[in-house]
């Protein structure tokens, strides 16, 4: 998919104020510092469409970006950052879950996982929650350039094994790097495919 236009539309913490539109949307979510903003910028080929966070956990808003005038890329707040106070954490968790429960046009959530790390409980719990609510999702492994090919392969295999303890099959996944563009075409192709099928 060629990105012809990418524009910021609205930020908010209230699901009812998300764009009143039937366009398909795709959500990007993960732990703070996973590389979400960098990935959004790499996918859209824009330097600072999503603000890369100096301080993790800062941007607790739902951000809608309109892509090619035909679909929304939704940047959801990073979860699981300890510095967020308990009460703040509670509100953002609530609006994240509300977002998924209410936005019927949300066709696939991309759950970002740092390819360097072992499976983390919070990510596993979040994916289980998506599964229980029958919300389609894919995994995006980030920062692949930070590992040597063997280590990357080993980590992903290990992740698959852990997922298969819980899931019948490994969800669709992508291996990406915002530093060298690895995987961007595949992620965008996946979105394009869903969008094309909607038109048929
Ligand atoms: P966010 O909090 O999930 O939005 O994460 P950011 O996109 O702000 O990235 C967190 C840190 O990881 C920043 O210092 C980025 O430069 C770095 N980073 C993000 N993606 C990559 C990547 O693909 N490769 C490398 N080497 N660094 C990355």
From TrEMBL:
<dbReference type="InterPro" id="IPR030393">
    <property type="entry name" value="G_ENGB_dom"/>
</dbReference>
<keyword id="KW-0342">GTP-binding</keyword>
<keyword id="KW-0131">Cell cycle</keyword>
<keyword id="KW-0479">Metal-binding</keyword>
<protein>
    <recommendedName>
        <fullName>Probable GTP-binding protein EngB</fullName>
    </recommendedName>
</protein>
<keyword id="KW-0547">Nucleotide-binding</keyword>
<dbReference type="Pfam" id="PF01926">
    <property type="entry name" value="MMR_HSR1"/>
</dbReference>
<keyword id="KW-0717">Septation</keyword>
<dbReference type="InterPro" id="IPR027417">
    <property type="entry name" value="P-loop_NTPase"/>
</dbReference>
<comment type="function">
    <text>Necessary for normal cell division and for the maintenance of normal septation.</text>
</comment>
<dbReference type="InterPro" id="IPR006073">
    <property type="entry name" value="GTP-bd"/>
</dbReference>
<comment type="similarity">
    <text>Belongs to the TRAFAC class TrmE-Era-EngA-EngB-Septin-like GTPase superfamily. EngB GTPase family.</text>
</comment>
<dbReference type="InterPro" id="IPR019987">
    <property type="entry name" value="GTP-bd_ribosome_bio_YsxC"/>
</dbReference>
<keyword id="KW-0132">Cell division</keyword>
<keyword id="KW-0460">Magnesium</keyword>
<feature type="domain" description="EngB-type G">
    <location>
        <begin position="22"/>
        <end position="197"/>
    </location>
</feature>
């Amino acid at each position: 998919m060629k990105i012809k236009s990418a524009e910021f539309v609205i930020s908010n913490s209230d699901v009812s104020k998300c764009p009143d539109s039937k366009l398909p949307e795709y959500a990007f979510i993960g732990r703070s510092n996973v590389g979400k903003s960098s990935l959004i910028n790499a996918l859209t080929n824009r330097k600072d469409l999503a603000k890369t966070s100096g301080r993790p956990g800062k941007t607790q808003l739902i951000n809608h970006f309109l892509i090619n005038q035909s679909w929304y890329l939704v940047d959801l707040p990073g979860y699981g950052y300890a510095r967020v106070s308990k009460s703040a954490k509670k509100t953002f968790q609530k609006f994240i879950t509300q977002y998924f429960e209410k936005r019927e046009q949300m066709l696939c959530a991309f759950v970002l996982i740092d390819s360097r790390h072992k499976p983390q409980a919070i990510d596993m719990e979040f994916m289980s929650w998506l599964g229980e609510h029958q919300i389609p999702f894919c995994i995006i492994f980030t920062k692949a350039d930070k590992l040597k090919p063997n280590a990357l392969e080993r980590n992903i295999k290990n992740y698959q094994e852990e997922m298969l303890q819980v899931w019948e099959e490994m969800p669709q996944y992508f291996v990406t790097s915002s530093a060298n563009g690895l995987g961007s075409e595949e992620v965008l192709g996946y979105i394009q495919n869903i969008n094309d099928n909607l038109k048929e």
